[in-house]
């Protein structure tokens, strides 16, 4: 009986050590990913009217990311697509960026007929829709749209 108890304790300790080591490695990986994401710093506006005025002054189009806090694909878009260097370069060259939480701004969401998240819109400087993309897109797919 003592041998079985000793074996059980050893197994529990080993599992605990393995779990601790894997958790530590996961934290390091997430810190490295966070550091990479910090290097891709997009300047998002939250006020559409200000973005439209900036668009008129800079002669750029407006790119809107309609999102919701509860939207899994929106989070994935932020982590995977908007952190791509080529996407950032294209955004910097051609667009004034706007993020709109559709749950907080139903009037804008309704105006642009946004029915699902994420919805990405490209507008001219007068607020007229040029292109629309609904749902998650990879960086490569987004580069084909923008």
Pick out its properties.
146 residues, alpha/beta, Glutaredoxin, 5-stranded mixed sheet, 6 helices, protein-disulfide reductase activity, Thioredoxin family protein
Explain this structure.
The chain is of the alpha/beta class and 146 residues long. It folds into two domains: 1-39; 43-145, Glutaredoxin (3-Layer(aba) Sandwich). The protein is built from six helices and five strands, in the order αβαβααβαββα. The protein has helices at residues 2-39, 48-58, 72-81, 85-94, 106-111, 139-145, and strands spanning 44-45, 61-67, 95-101, 119-123, 129-134. Strands 1-3-2-4-5 form a five-stranded mixed β-sheet. Strand 4 and strand 5 (129-134) form a beta hairpin. The longest helix is centred in the first third of the chain and has 38 residues, at 2-39. The protein is elongated, with a radius of gyration of 22 Å. Mean pLDDT is 81; it is low at 19-38.
SSE inventory with pairings:
Blueprint lengths: L1 H38 L4 E2 L2 H11 L2 E7 L4 H10 L3 H10 E7 L4 H6 L7 E5 L5 E6 L4 H7 L1
Parallel strand pairs: 1-3, 2-3
Antiparallel strand pairs: 2-4, 4-5
Pfam families: Thioredoxin (PF00085)
GO molecular function: protein-disulfide reductase activity
Protein name: Thioredoxin family protein
Helix content: 55-70%
CATH superfamily of the largest domain: Glutaredoxin
The major beta sheet can be summarized as: 5 strands, mixed
Number of helices: 6
**How large a portion of the residues is in β-strands, by DSSP E?**
15-25%
Average pLDDT rating = 81
How many structural domains are formed by the residues?
A: 2
Strand order of the largest sheet: 1-3-2-4-5
Q: Write down the CATH topology of the largest domain.
A: Glutaredoxin
Q: Please write the string of helix (H) and strand (E) elements.
A: HEHEHHEHEEH
CATH class group of the largest domain: Alpha Beta
Structural class: alpha/beta
Please give the alpha-carbon distance between the first and last residues: 69 Å
GO molecular function, one term: protein-disulfide reductase activity
Domain Thioredoxin: 22-146
InterPro entries: Thioredoxin-like_sf, Thioredoxin_CS, Thioredoxin_domain
GO biological process, one term: cell redox homeostasis
């Amino acid at each position: 009986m003592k041998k079985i108890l000793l074996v059980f304790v050893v197994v529990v300790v080993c599992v605990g050590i393995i779990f601790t080591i894997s958790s530590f490695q996961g934290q390091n990986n997430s810190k490295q990913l966070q550091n990479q994401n910090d290097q891709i710093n997009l300047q998002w506006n939250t006020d559409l009217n200000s973005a439209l005025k900036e668009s008129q002054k800079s002669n750029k189009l407006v790119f809107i990311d309609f999102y919701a806090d509860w939207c899994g694909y929106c989070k994935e878009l932020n982590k995977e697509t908007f952190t791509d260097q080529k996407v950032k370069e294209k955004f910097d060259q051609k667009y004034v960026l706007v993020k709109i939480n559709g749950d907080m701004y139903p009037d804008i969401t309704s105006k642009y007929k946004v029915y699902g998240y994420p919805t990405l819109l490209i507008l001219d400087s007068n607020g007229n829709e040029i292109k629309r993309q609904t749902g998650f897109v990879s960086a490569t797919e987004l580069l084909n749209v923008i």
